[in-house]
């Protein structure tokens, strides 16, 4: 029976791998990597650097495939169908890679940024493939250090305050309103910089981009003061690198 590891590889720093992740890496025959195009070639390079740092050369293969495009302009009622179409296309690619590149008793792996259980589609896609029955395999999940954990550590702060909840949400949801009953909100996947909506409120922001990589950028402070700087740094970094991954914590003051 084929076996697949879904391995959380942290936010970018090879030192963030857990010992469990390293053991899984070293037991893998084939690593499957989706190429997101030239603009995001750094993401493929970071994965290869990680393998070079932790896995003996000559003991594995890396198989790349082009990641399907997603309709990023789709909004409102069209958003969920667009994501569903993209996931379906990814499922087809994953199923083909597993069936064609992995032997009947081989061990393959998908390397997931951060933690596979937090805003990542790999687990759901593998379940979709198994439900479809096109290829049989077993899989396990190795947790990783998420960008959320890395963000809090780099800013030397906790995600929540004593006796208070913390909520993790997306920029799309934050733009609809600050979550009720919560003063500490972690925001991911915010291409539109929804934090600007709250620049007039007494809120502190802890922002980080390219966490765990040599390009890491950190900004913190009252949102009214920090927001213009974040916008400027974010635009410069995106222009320079062609892509950006950022996460932030909003903390409403009592």
TrEMBL record:
Signal peptide: none annotated. Pathway: Cofactor biosynthesis; adenosylcobalamin biosynthesis. CDD domains: Precorrin-6A-synthase. Residues 4-226 form the Tetrapyrrole methylase domain. Keywords: Cobalamin biosynthesis, Methyltransferase, S-adenosyl-L-methionine, Transferase. This is Precorrin 6A synthase. It comes from Streptomyces resistomycificus. GO terms for molecular function: precorrin-6A synthase (deacetylating) activity. GO terms for biological process: cobalamin biosynthetic process; methylation.
